Amino acid sequence: MIAIVDYNMGNLRSVQNACDKIGSPAAIVKDPDQLSAYDRVILPGVGAFGDAMEHLKKSGMQEALYSYAKSGNPMMGVCLGMQLLFESSEEFGRHKGLGLIEGEVQRFDSSRFETPLKVPHMGWNEITVKDSVLFKGLAKTFYLYFVHSYHVVCKEEYIIGKTHYGYHFASAVNKENIYGFQPHPEKSHDNGLQILKNFTES
Fold first, then answer.
1. CB atoms < 10 A from the CB of 147, how many?
2. pLDDT tens, 17-36?
3. Domain 2-201 is of which CATH architecture?
């Protein structure tokens, strides 16, 4: 059974509906004490990094996520959920993240271009991937749906997917049992559903 973490940051129902479509029902979980009962956890989210971390701390979900990560069961962060897996973010000041993966979240840097990048990065874009159980049945390059103004900067060893928007950035990551996707699998039709299916079977 899959737990979708509810920390008041939205995008829960679309993830739940996508899980239903692939035949893997998921429960929306607000109580941190219930998290350990699930085989897999998805940390979704749309919103501000600082607000998200504040709610995770106050609700007790931060500690529950730490314990879950240590259990060895698969965990996936999506969009803001992926960014929260890292050590810090520069969104609206400086904020500490969960620190489950080494790295930080930075705003797209348009200063290096004569014509500034449009931020947020929004719409369909290609992701080029490395070998991973999550990409079973997919090509090395395919399209997913993105909506974000910030992206992760981390060690190459954690990056399993890259996307180009002005420059290349990490759009999918993996460290041990923890995965992260900057795009939205739940909004990415067949390709995204295949990723979610692979996650449920990993």
1. 15
2. 999 999 999 999 999 999 99
3. 3-Layer(aba) Sandwich (3.40)
